[in-house]
């Protein structure tokens, strides 16, 4: 649990804007990283910054209804016809089965290399994280909703030494929004923000697939 000082700092940073989206319009180079994305694993996280309260007085303000959030998210993701979303835990389970199946091949079998590449491609698919951070403020709630998509790369070597990074990652897309408002509309408003960020990512992937690339 974060301190009251952190909550105060967050509250003080809020501008008069009711809703503020932070980000830069996608450029051609940014879209290029999304052009071959067809499947994305995802997970949802939320955290709350609360002021100091008495231990015998539980505080349920500005708490995200996780089940409603998960249901809303699945509904929005299922609307996409070209982009498939898979829950992170389901992806991990399926990847484990793919690697387990490699035992059925001999090491000299060319089919094993193909199956191994398929397992790696599935296991290291891009991953979207959606994080909602909330705070109790005077007059209601504050929330920051951040969606980020990362991609794992093949092993790379650092410039300064011969050290090999086995699983480097890179952010290929991100966007975040701040929300401020009364407690009674907190969940419906913040979950709507989360939905919109996911739709924004789907639109970015669609734009990347429709953009002509030189030499492609």
What does this structure look like?
The protein has helices at residues 4-12, 28-32, 66-78, 88-100, 110-123, 186-210; strands spanning 19-22, 39-49, 84-87, 127-137, 140-152, 156-157, 164-165, 169-181. With 216 residues, the chain is α/β, with parallel strands linked by helices. The chain has a domain at 4-52 and 126-208. The strands form 2 sheets. It has a 6-stranded mixed sheet. A two-stranded antiparallel ribbon has the order 6-7. The longest helix is centred in the C-terminal third of the chain and has 25 residues, at 186-210. The protein is elongated. Mean pLDDT is 83; it is low at 1-17 and 23-28.
Mean pLDDT: 83
Radius of gyration: 21 Å
Sequence of strands across the biggest β-sheet? 1-8-5-4-2-3
Distance between the first and last residues' Cα? 50 Å
Share of helical residues: 25-40%
Structural class assignment: alpha/beta
Q: What is the N-to-C succession of helices and strands?
A: HEHEHEHHEEEEEH
Give the overall shape. Answer: elongated
Overall number of strands: 8
Strand fraction: 25-35%
List low-pLDDT spans: 1-17, 23-28
Q: What is the count of DSSP helices, taking H or I runs of 4+ residues?
A: 6
The biggest sheet, with number of strands, parallel, antiparallel or mixed sense and barrel status, is: 6 strands, mixed
């Amino acid at each position: 649990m974060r301190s009251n000082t952190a909550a105060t700092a967050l509250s003080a940073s809020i501008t008069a804007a009711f809703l503020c989206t932070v980000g830069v319009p996608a450029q051609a180079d940014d879209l290029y990283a999304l052009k071959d994305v067809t499947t994305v694993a995802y997970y949802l996280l939320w955290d709350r910054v609360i002021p100091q309260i008495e231990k015998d007085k539980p505080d349920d303000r500005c708490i995200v209804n996780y089940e409603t959030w998960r249901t809303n998210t699945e509904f929005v993701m299922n609307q996409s016809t070209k982009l498939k979303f898979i829950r992170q835990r389901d992806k991990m389970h399926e990847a484990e089965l793919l690697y387990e199946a490699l035992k059925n091949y001999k090491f000299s079998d060319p089919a094993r290399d193909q199956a191994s590449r398929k397992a790696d491609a599935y296991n290291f698919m891009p991953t979207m994280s959606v994080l909602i951070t909330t705070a109790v403020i005077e007059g209601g709630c504050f929330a920051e909703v951040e969606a980020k998509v990362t991609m794992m790369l093949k092993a790379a070597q650092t410039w300064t030494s011969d050290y090999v990074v086995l699983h480097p990652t890179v952010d290929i897309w991100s966007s975040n929004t701040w929300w401020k408002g009364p407690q009674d509309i907190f969940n419906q408003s913040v979950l709507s923000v989360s939905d919109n960020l996911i739709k924004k990512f789907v639109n970015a992937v669609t734009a990347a697939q429709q953009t002509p690339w030189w030499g492609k």
